[in-house]
Write a structure and sequence with these properties.
The protein contains 13 helices and 13 strands. Bound molecules: nicotinamide-adenine-dinucleotide (NAD).
């Protein structure tokens, strides 16, 4: 089986969990139901077929380091849980653009780099990357578009892990560019394994399926890593709120009205440093049931946020390689609906989206 050669932009805590995860599961058998990853083998690709070939960041202390070392550099806090050999992949500088918010400068310590598109494209091409994975901080609109352009120029599939609307671009601009160039595009904004979004979607669907009208709902999230610190500035959250909110309201036929009436509030809520990578999520749903009696649900979920994304990314990069193998062009809705919060087409997780994804992996949907 050929390798799945992956380049990453943004060597933060999510990348640290992903890179280690590949080595943690290196010897997993093909048929095992393994904890933490939804598919030990996907479309013929084992987890150990994932190979990291290029990496980009802006932090002075990460640039120039081997990827196996850079993932443990400040301010990353993902603990070491796997032995990783030296990968021979040096972290290269990317352009800062809007990747580093003012309040994050003292944490990310960006180098003053002025990196051209050509340089990043050359790096991608010479690395032989099949898939370019975007893991920049929330709010990196311009920088994400830069890396998306680089993927188009280099001919690598793009997996957009963050809430900048590329695969789900409502204007169709980005989806069309990928279609024209014959390159697969997956996104946007990874949906954690058993994270706040999937839990909230599932509970909302349960209310609806059992004939209870959802009248109001919120989902508040707190955490203590740079991802949460970055998201304390509301201006950076515009797309994140849309992505997380639509992921839930799209489950209900009247979800949009609920939003318009101001009965939905979903998003990152505060930075609590001592939580580290632990994310705590509070979900509240108030419903109207038989004879207008209320149903009130309060749920608290506590997870290691980065472990929640890494397992899904392991599937996402392999799905992108499967799309390349099948010469798929442009957005891949069959894979994106299951793996991302804001895909081009939303579908219920437990039935439609899962079925689309499984059929896609087996090759029966393309
Ligand atoms: N469960 C989850 O963790 C989850 C789920 C969905 C989406 N995401 C998103 O994934 C992204 C990555 O999360 P994380 O925890 O690794 O973030 P992080 O804060 O740990 O890391 C971000 C990295 O991006 C780098 N960076 C900033 N600007 C850059 C640029 N212009 N070019 C290259 N690198 C740049 C920073 O130096 C840092 O190393 C975030 O946007 C997060 O919201 C995470």
């Amino acid at each position: 089986m050929p390798k799945v050669r992956v380049a990453i932009a943004g060597i933060g805590n999510a990348a640290a969990a992903l890179v280690q995860g590949v080595f943690y599961y290196w010897n997993s058998s093909d048929d095992d139901y393994i904890p933490g990853v939804m598919h030990s083998k996907l479309g013929g690709y084992r987890i150990s077929d994932i190979e990291f070939v290029a990496a980009f960041d802006v932090a002075k202390n990460k640039i120039g380091k081997d990827l196996s070392e850079a993932i443990f550099e400040y301010p990353n806090i993902t603990p070491k849980f796997a032995e990783i050999p030296k990968l021979g992949v040096e972290v290269k500088p990317g352009p800062v653009m809007d990747g580093v918010a003012e309040h994050m400068v003292e944490f990310f310590k960006p180098a003053e780099t002025n990196i051209s598109l050509e340089k990043v494209v050359d790096e991608l091409k010479s690395s032989g990357a099949d898939v370019f994975l975007n893991l920049l901080p929330v709010g990196s609109e311009e920088a994400t578009r830069f890396y998306a352009k680089a993927s188009l120029e280099a001919g690598t599939a793009f997996v957009n892990g963050i809430p900048v609307f590329i695969a789900s671009d409502p204007s169709g601009y980005w989806p069309n560019l990928y279609k024209e160039r014959g390159i697969p595009l997956l996104g946007d904004d990874v949906k954690g394994q058993v994270g706040a979004t999937i839990l909230h979607r599932t509970l909302t669907r349960l209310f609806h399926a059992r004939g209870v009208i959802v009248e109001e709902t919120y989902q508040l999230n707190i955490g203590g890593n740079t991802d949460f610190l970055n998201m304390t500035v509301e201006e950076r959250l515009h797309s994140k709120r849309i992505s997380k909110t639509r992921a839930v309201t799209s489950i209900l036929p009247y979800g949009e009205n609920l939003e318009k009436e101001g009965k939905v509030r979903i998003g990152p809520s505060d930075y609590v440093p001592f939580l580290g990578n632990i994310k705590v999520c509070y979900i509240y749903i108030k419903g109207r049931s038989f004879a207008d009696f209320p149903v009130i649900l309060d749920v608290k979920l506590s997870v290691d946020d980065k472990s929640m994304i890494a397992g899904v990314l392991i599937d996402a990069v392999r799905a992108a390689k499967i799309a390349i193998d099948r010469s798929l062009k442009g957005p891949v809705p069959e894979a994106s609906a299951y793996l991302f919060k804001h895909p081009p087409t939303q579908a219920p997780d437990d039935e439609t989206a899962k079925q689309w994804f499984e059929e896609f992996c087996l090759g029966s949907s393309s």
